[in-house]
Amino acid sequence: MKNSYSILIIFLTIFSFSCSLNYLKSENSEDSIPEFSFKNATYSKYESSKKNVSLKAEQLEQYKSDNSVFAKNAEFETFDSEGKEETSGSCQLISANIKKEIYTLYGEIQLNLPKQDMQISADSLNFNKKTEQITSGKSSEVKLIKKDIEMSGYGFSASGVSKTFSFADSVSGTINTSDSEETETETKESTEDE
C-alpha cells in the first residue's frame, strides 16, 4: 500500500511538472508573444497623407508571426479617401488579420454605417475589407436599423459593393411608413393606371 501511494505521488509530480513544461514552451513560443502590447491605446492609420482608420482600445496587441492584431474594448472609425466617415462603432474585442484585411468583432457590437444610413447590433461579425462583405454566423443574432426598417435575424450578410443585405433565417421586424408616403404611392399607381 505504501509502495503504491509513493508511486502515485511520483507519478502526479512528474505529470504536473511535464504539464507546466508544455505550458511554458507554448507561452515562450514566438507565436504567443505579442510584438507589442499597449494599454489605453489610440491608433491612427494614414494612406496618402489622409487618416483612414482611428482606433481607441483598452488594450492593443500585435503579433508579428501571423500579422494579427487584437484590440480589447475598442472604439473605431474608418474614413473614405475624401475624409468622410464610412464606419464607426464599438465592441469588446477585435481580431484582425492586417495582411488579409479580415476583421472579426465580438461582444456588444454597435456598428454605424452613415453612407448606407444603417446601424447594426450583434455579438459577432466578420468583415472582409477586400470584398466589402459583413457576415455573421448562422447562430448569431443581428439587429439592423435602416431608415424606417427595424429587423433582427440570423445568418446576416451585407455587401458594401451592391449596398444590399439579407438574413438567412428567423427574420422578424417592422417597417414604418408615413401616411404621406402611402398616399404618394397610391396616387402614382392610380395615375399610371389611367
Low-pLDDT runs: 2-26, 181-194
Helix content class: 10-25%
Secondary structural class? alpha+beta
Classify the beta-strand content into a percent band: over 45%
Count of helical stretches: 2
Give the tally of β-strands.
Answer: 12
Rounded mean pLDDT is 78
**Overall body shape:** globular
Sequence of secondary-structure elements: HEEEEEEEEEEEEH
Largest sheet: 12 strands, antiparallel
N- and C-termini, Cα separation: 103 Å
Output the radius of gyration: 25 Å
Report what the structure shows:
The protein is of the alpha+beta class and 194 residues long. The protein contains two helices and twelve strands; from the N terminus they run αββββββββββββα. Strands 1, 2, 3, 4, 5, 6, 7, 8, 9, 10, 11 and 12 form a twelve-stranded antiparallel sheet that branches. A hairpin with a 4-residue loop joins strand 5 and strand 6. The longest helix has 27 residues, at 2-28. It is globular, with a radius of gyration of 25 Å. The relative contact order is 0.08.
Short description:
This protein is 22% helix and 53% strand.
Question: Which short descriptors sum up this protein?
Answer:
194 residues, disordered C terminus, twelve-stranded antiparallel β-sheet
Topology:
Layout lengths: L1 H27 L7 E12 L2 E14 L4 E12 L5 E13 L4 E12 L4 E11 L4 E3 L5 E6 L2 E6 L2 E3 L4 E3 L2 E7 L3 H15 L1
Antiparallel strand pairs: 1-2, 2-3, 3-4, 4-5, 5-6, 6-7, 6-8, 7-10, 8-9, 9-12, 10-11
